[in-house]
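User: Sequence for Flp family type IVb pilin below. Tokens please.
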Amino acid sequence: MQHQDERGSSAVEYGMMIAGIAAVVASVVFLLGGTVRDTLFDPGCDELAGHMAANGASANC
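Assistant: Structure tokens for Flp family type IVb pilin:
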């Protein structure tokens, strides 16, 4: 009985898993990115801009 070399097939399987994970991550970022930005980053940026304006500096959010 001969043993077949299966290293190539496992490399293809790992590549497909990585591509699938990347697609899921890209989808989540696309779908939830605006919500995360609006919830987490805009209030902090607005607060920082207010502090900077009070000190005579300008800020772009």
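The first helix runs from residue 7 to 54.
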